[in-house]
């Protein structure tokens, strides 16, 4: 057997490995953060790379915080990472976004992973719908991020390996093409519709979807020619908003259902509150007045953040102020020096359930806590409801209001009423409609529900991880006596 066809691959891997080894030695020795307390690396070369990649690192971080303190360092390959649960430091990091940026590697990885999705009513919620290319493409993206395996990890840490074709990337490329074509057809349709409108023809206007709004704004007569976006840019903008919003919202919805099914008394109490409104078509004001619904949603978002952790990287040498001083070589320091290139790991879930902030019952699902929050949680620099689920600072989630006020209700409605099957109209009253109309029960033992150890935290069946994300539920019509 000839080795010739493999030689470029072997050479590239060897070169990348040698380069990384050299960087490990040089960078680790130079980095001042190595003097911070923290765990011993399990591997001389990789540090905690594999643990980080293959498991949800939240519990590992919580354990380290108990052993070494709230600000620690550890190694991943050649990087000494900073991990902090110090809310003063986190607030500084999130509000100095020019210095502490999202890492380039993560941005490109996400772009490859999900940057291809494009949502219009693609039928992902309708199990009986005839399979279509777009829907298949979207499913492919969702399912392919269920498990972390070695090759994607190598491609992430050694970007040079991305030059080699790989099955997943090939499928992503195909899906990207399908979605790009779909989007440009929609843009053309919209342009035609607007042109017909101008000529006074009667056309059915489809309003409200993101793409339509963007195309309309972009074609508006008040916009100077030089400021108009190209079609490609419009497609990219839609991808960003819709990819960032579609799965995240659907997963939050799944965790919402899980919790109301798991706690029948909470479900009952919530239903009673919803039934206190004497109409099936409440106004937004009526919905906003539903205090318990708000508390349940806050608790779901706190304990089930879709993204359990995030990363920032220092783009320059900079000091980082701390609320709680750290001990370095026997001396207490209330600020530490961060070197350019240092990755900073932010554990969203660990902060959201930190006992020292939320109290001893912080791991429990208790909507009532929102009536009497501990003072300490006000130091968490999150954009919404004293938690980090939507992060904070300038690069906090752009769509959190949309997600909580619009998408979760709409998705709830459409999932459980099978889009009008029960005669309810499509409005923001979905959560409201759902629990007034149905009783929910878990379709599997509660101990069998786990979280996928992936970038996005989805529900899965612990006894059947190979099947990917799932949450079987029993849904019965609710009979009012
Ligand atoms: C429950 C649903 C959602 C959750 C949990 C969520 C969570 C997040 C988080 C944690 C980030 C920051 C990531 C980081 O800093 O590493 C983020 C960013 C972002 N989200 Fe969301 N998101 C949700 C829904 C949405 C929706 C519906 C949209 C759009 C309509 C959206 C658009 C965005 C965008 C554009 C960013 C990037 C902001 C920037 O970098 O400046 N998200 N989201």
TrEMBL record:
Record-linked SUPFAM superfamilies: Cytochrome P450 (SSF48264)
Record has Manganese as a keyword: no
Pathway where it operates: Secondary metabolite biosynthesis
Keyword Metal-binding: yes
Key words of the record: Heme, Iron, Metal-binding, Monooxygenase, Oxidoreductase
Residues reported in the UniProt entry to bind heme: 397
Superkingdom to which the source organism belongs: Eukaryota
Alphabetized Gene3D superfamilies for the sequence: Cytochrome P450
Name used for this protein in its record: Cytochrome P450
Gene source species: Trametes pubescens
